[in-house]
Amino acid sequence: MKERIGNGVRRFTQLVAAVLYNCNFKGFASGRIYKGNTKGICAPGLNCYSCPGAVLACPLGSFQGALAKSAYKLPLYMLGALILFGILLGRMICGFFCPFGLIQDLLYKLPLPKMQKNKVTRALSYLKYVILLIFVIVIPIVKLAPGFCKYICPAGTLEAGIPLVIMDENLQSRIGWLFSWKVFVLAVVLVACSMVYRAFCRFLCPLGAIYSFFNPVAFFGIRVQKEKCTGCNTCVRACKMDVKCVGDHECIHCGECRKACPTGAIAYRRIRQTPEDKIKDFLTD
Question: Which domains does the chain have, with CATH numbers?
Fold first, then answer.
């Protein structure tokens, strides 16, 4: 019962986030991109700016665009937004507030063979940091183009590229190799996510890579109460992500470890904590 309630709350939060990010419903009918004032505000999770329903900007896309436009100047506004999201939630955003994370969770429910985490998946989990460096930072600065959005992002292809092409006959006549390449990347990612838990999050997503740096200091998230922990590692074995310990850079704070812990040593950080509690959590996580 506890497991069902926990999963239900997280799934509800994911659905609410997806709807709030994409509540321009008439855009899906008209095929027009919303350009209102809220597009100057970033959603915390990965969500394509060009999706017909999107009413918020994507933090990753905005960061790349700002880098490309300002060349060698730091986009302080976008950097500040990413830092704020990271300090507040870390990779809890991946677990609770990312529409593409929800899609991956649903795909994994398909009755297909599953690959469990192993040394290979743990090694591949570092690939997203390479993608962050090359496609999110280097290419926008050197080529003045949003590298990840242009060449990789499957969320953009699924949420924006394919719907816009379907609805706009003019776009259909202008499809080139790049769109075909991105559809291929999307297909590979979708198949991978149906057999490997959150394959995109674990191996490819540079936004998750950014938020992972903040996991140890994020205000909200999972924590281990050291006085109750017996070191049995049941939590690590229960986690489908490539974590080495609860709350590390791969943790998306989904709560599966909390349900598995035999001693009840794992809990979400309390909203109301004394400064002493927060310092203790930071030092012992």
Answer: 2-212 (no CATH), 222-284 (3.30.70)
Residue pair 86/210 in contact (Cβ under 8 Å)? The answer is yes
Taking only the tens place, the pLDDT of each residue in 44-96 is 999 999 999 999 999 999 999 988 887 667 778 889 999 999 999 999 999 99
Name the CA dihedral angle for 103, 108, 111, 115, rounded to a multiple of 10 degrees. 150
Please give the Cα distance from 10 to 34 (Å, whole number). 28
- Residues 107-148: tens digit of each pLDDT: 999 999 999 999 999 999 999 999 999 999 999 999 889 999
